[in-house]
Amino acid sequence: MSALTVLALAVGFVLLIGGGEVLVRGAGGLATTLGISPLVVGLTVVAFATSAPEFAVSVDAALSGYPGLAVGNVVGSNIANILLILGLTAIVAPLVATSRIVRVDIPIMVLFSLVALLVALDGTISFLDGLLL
């Protein structure tokens, strides 16, 4: 690995951390300004913003004839977010799982994951499946 590659990687990480900070501050400010729960902003604005790269990669992969890569990107990203990112974040700063998160939010996440599983069981995620998802 060349020094330029290492430098580019380091600069990318610094920009990523800075961008994450800007996103968190902006989302927190939006929640305060609108008087809504930070959880709601996290589930919508932050979720869409952080999912944009996966969307771009998956669309490009599907259009390039690599649908398996598109599906793998989405599934792998979700597994990494749920297990790796959540776990590492809890190591850095303990997280509070309110009873609402445990009783409502996690079951909804599991339900939607099951819907994705069901539409993929036939081996194809069609246009209509995409509309359902």
TrEMBL record:
InterPro entries per the UniProt record, alphabetical: K/Na/Ca-exchanger (IPR004481), NaCa_Exmemb (IPR004837), NCX_ion-bd_dom_sf (IPR044880)
Domain of life: Bacteria
Location relative to the cell: Membrane
Domain Sodium/calcium exchanger membrane region: from-to ranges: 6-133
Keyword entries, A-Z: Membrane, Transmembrane, Transmembrane helix
Any one GO cellular component localisation term in the record: plasma membrane
GO molecular function, one term: calcium, potassium:sodium antiporter activity
Gene3D superfamilies in UniProt: NCX, central ion-binding region
Pfam families attached to this UniProt entry: Na_Ca_ex (PF01699)
GO biological process: intracellular calcium ion homeostasis
Membrane topology: Multi-pass membrane protein
Membrane-spanning ranges: 79-97, 109-128
Cited PANTHER family: INNER MEMBRANE PROTEIN YRBG, SODIUM/POTASSIUM/CALCIUM EXCHANGER
Stated name of the protein: Sodium:calcium antiporter
